[in-house]
Design brief:
By secondary structure, the chain is of the alpha/beta class. It is built from 16 helices and eleven strands. Helix 2 runs antiparallel to helix 9 and helix 3 packs across helix 4. The longest helix has 19 residues.
Amino acid sequence: MKDRIYVCHTYYHAYVAFLKELHLRREGDAPGHGEASLVLSSMSNDFERFGERAKATGLFAEVISFEEKREDYFPELASFRQDKGNIVLNMWQRIRFTKRYAKLEAPYIPVDFRKYREIYVFCDSDPIGYYLNRNKIHYHAMEDGLNCLVHFDAARYDNRGHFGLKAFLSKKLNLIFVQNGYGKYCLDMEVNSISAITMPCPYYKELPRQKLVDELTGEDKDIILRAFVRDMDSLLKKIKECGGTDDGGKEAPAGSQEEMCEKMKAGAGKQKRDKILLLTDPLCTLDVRERIFKDIVEEYEKQGQIFIKPHPRDELDYRKVFPGYPMFDGTVPMEMLNFFPDLHFDQVVTVFTDLKGIRFADKLVRLGDEFMDRYEDPEIHNQNKRIGIIEKDTDNL
């Protein structure tokens, strides 16, 4: 019997898997080295050569690629999604869908999960959740993103209308599948903060992410950086550039940035302006997304110099849209920037990304639903309000 396996769909998932594995080994709950496996699903994210770097750290015994398939990969499943006009027929359709989807996914499962003592699955709403439940394999679910259930209760939204019945059919009878703690074979779901969730599931288990970060040693941070940073020299250069410019947010001409940093350190630079980091989100359509971030840049560059860090799953080409603006590698989780003591911003601005894990900025600005109402129908992104959930204040998380 092997020890542990983590199923990840994003770079953030992998980052938390590193944090958990380092925590378990520090606590003595994970004997020796090389006892855990890391699975990287290609369904939602292109991990490029991250798997090779992760394996080279020695933290995981094996790193496994997973060609997970969305439901639209199997055309026959579309018929099960057709509205039959009443809940009884629709539920029968869903029961058939759940069983068939798990069977179709089975050939793409890369490992025998029954050989692992503990299974951790990030975002079990993806096909892996259907597979594990239909095959009666117990697992621990993991929060998809920091405080994601605070901002969007996906299980209740996806199953709005007779939620109690659907949760019963999933948790007790395993006839259908409801994610985020409501699957029959989901032992529990680990979240950052239970108190912040308006309608928590009884199976939620709290493990604050900041607690895991605070435990990291210098050696631990080095392991994480070696895995996640594709080009350390480039990242360090960008951090050095954060010493500031006074050109409205655009990079100084080639060869002059270092000189500008030195002048500012010596007090000979121009009047200090705010340094503002813009974190993008994979929002809406690409054309609307481009307009959103152009508007944000136009507004905030009045206050200072703009630096941009694309979201790992954001497909908009920001180097083309914002040529000349300093830009961080999108594949590096934003929380990892906390590891660099010389990095500091006056503000960090985003639309929906939860910013509670950031320690390198004075002011955190999450624009949220009201801002997005200007660009798309509020019904599209105000999911919590549609099911009667009012988000709690998370300032103290």
